């Protein structure tokens, strides 16, 4: 089967190997003549960014590159991007890269025509209605990792350096108008990044599946996303040149972000303070905490996990069968067992617990959480106590 298609939900997606060649056409169809390509400095040094910019120039577009985006992007990255956009007289944004670049790019596109500060658009109550929609720039998103799914998300996670929290900036129209899903762009990812980002996709599907809200459409997408991860993540990690594995993982990543409109949970609540304070890798952190959160939530999700294990075709169709698969997958692709191994230690547990409780993902955890629960759960993850 040719792994290629034009899809229209949750947005227009042009999927298939080599489709980066359609970038200029995608920009033009959104009315762009002078796109600003937003990426991170690591990617900006690679030929794929130069090639994407050259494709645009050859097609008569005036394309500039803005690459001042750090991992776990902060407000200053957005402010500088807005300044670059306005100074260059741009009329649209190409969001190009992994989660950090995509999130920064989407926030820049939101902010180019706003009068209020960024934090006024945090995902609280109806704050998104404060956005002047006419001031938003159109976005073509080009993911280069398979995990975040931010290319099909309606929000950006930006770190507020004042209180070291990750804040969600949300507007329904932050969903990029066009996505180019080209698995060839993910082929050069090192195995450990493939593993960590792939586990982020799994955590999106899994937390969406487990969240207690009623959303069967999201559950359907989450279940199939997890089936793709199970079948293809090990191959993507161990045989990085496999376009087949890279294709399925790129789709699974978009599926995870589509599904988590249903909610996330304690994996993300625990992970966000680690990223905001210690700059740990988001997907890797989720991967480390995953089994501990599953065990913590066991009573609330046991029936659901049995159903999921059956869909995935696991040998033991039970909660324990699923847990064993997660542990085996983590071992196979080189994920550490404990948070201590990625620099989160016992002295952080008490400080991070209130931040985890305040994280918006907490609302989707199947088991209600308290600050003390989070402190204990952090300690379990740090000490390796399942
Ligand atoms: Fe995530």
The total count of strands amounts to 9
Order of helices and strands: EEHEHHEHEHEEEEHHHHHHHHH
Low-confidence stretches: none
Largest sheet: 7 strands, mixed
Average pLDDT metric: 97
Rg from Cα:
20 Å
Helix amount, in percent?
40-55%
Shape: globular
Q: Give the bound compounds.
A: fe (ii) ion
Distance between the termini: 41 Å
**Largest beta sheet: strand ordering:** 1-2-9-6-5-3-4
Proportion of β residues? 5-15%
Instruction: Kindly name the structural category.
Output: alpha/beta
How many H/I helices?
Answer: 14
Quick structural gist:
By secondary structure, the chain is of the alpha/beta class. 50% of the residues lie in helices and 11% in strands. The protein is built from 14 helices and nine strands.
General description of the model:
50% of the residues lie in helices and 11% in strands. The protein is of the alpha/beta class and 386 residues long. The strands form two sheets. It has a seven-stranded mixed beta sheet, sandwiched between helices. Strand 1 (5-7) and strand 2 (12-15) form a beta hairpin. Helix 9 (266-278) runs antiparallel to helix 10. The structure holds fe (ii) ion. Fe (ii) ion binds next to helix 6 and helix 10.
